[in-house]
Specification:
6 helices, mainly alpha
Length: 100
């Protein structure tokens, strides 16, 4: 599949599923972290939903992709994270400022 077609599919699902870090640029970074050229539509959609789950806990692709490769899930990170919701929101706000 060509990159533009894959990105249209991927970004649509990612942006609909992510409540944090929901930008087309981050969707593209996530998509480029997988083998999108040989992926099916279903694989793209499944990966985009997984990427959105990572984004929803404030993780950027560069931080999360090594964890994904190690079979770590967003749920594992959330369960092991001792920070409060307020601290997570502050960390997310800082990351969003870096993206601007």
């Amino acid at each position: 599949m060509d990159k533009l077609t894959a990105l249209r599919i991927y970004a649509t699902v990612y942006l609909a599923s992510a409540s944090q870090l929901a930008t087309s640029r981050i969707a593209r970074e996530w998509m480029e972290g997988m083998d999108f050229r040989t992926a099916t539509r279903d694989e793209l959609e499944q990966h985009a939903k997984q990427a959105a789950a990572w984004a929803n806990i404030g993780m950027l692709p560069a931080e999360a992709l090594p964890l994904v490769a190690s079979s770590i899930t967003p749920e594992m990170i959330t369960a092991a994270d001792p920070t409060t919701d307020a601290e997570r929101m502050e960390r997310l706000a800082t990351r969003m400022e870096m993206l601007d």
